[in-house]
Amino acid sequence: MTVPARVRRGAIGVFDSGVGGLTVAAALSRALPREHILYLGDTARLPYGTKSEQTVARYTQTNVDFLAGRGVKAVVVACNTASALALPHLVTDLPVWGVIEPGARRAAEVTRGRVGILATESTVRSGAYARALHARRADLEVLSQPCPLLVPLVEEGWFDDPVTRQVVERYLAPLLEREVDTLVLGCTHYPLLAPLIAEFAGPGITLVDSAAAVAAEVAAGLAGAGLAATVRQGEDHVCVTDVGERFERLAREILQRPTRLELVDLGETEREGVR
Ligand code: DGL
Question: Which fold does the domain 100-210 belong to in CATH?
């Protein structure tokens, strides 16, 4: 069946709880220069990483419903916590990509056997990375470290601050002691701390950021489904559920251009089964 041109011209919808998912949006833009992106940062309900599966599933559903209502042709869940907890509950007709599977696939390819996962508390509790890694390589040793303090430090823009250095060093210590050879940046905020994490990890450890891996999968998936844009149709657009000057500043840093924000109200439409 051919996909109508009107559908192919739609944006790729991308959402995260905050600014971190813009690292995924930037990777998508690099891999797919003809596509335009509608980004939703759910800043009013951030953080997701400390919340329950039910709550994150409900938030995810409202975010996807909002993006679908704006006519996107596909959705990228650029939040590890939502990818880990909410995808099995999600009800939508759109093609959807999460960030856990591509990240795990990449880590399984590069590791020599011992993988450390840095993620939010909820992602670690879900066991999603360990499951995805073991499904690929049952021999792998997987060690997980929840890093709840890193999201607020990134949202604050403290990418290389003495406080952040201390926190990163402390979170990495147990994983370095166990001699992991690969570290998965299992939260979309952490790539913004990659230089600092790499500095403490040292040259023998490979960092895995799922953003590039997701972008490659989305590119292949859109092409396979006949959904890829042939010419660029629109501009990228960023929506947030709460205004913040801080978000605007960080967005400018990540996307390397000024970014105007649209404040939106998701209305929290409840759906049967995801309450
Ligand atoms: N961006 C979210 C993730 O990738 C973490 C931020 C939050 O806790 O909301 O898990």
Answer: Rossmann fold (3.40.50)
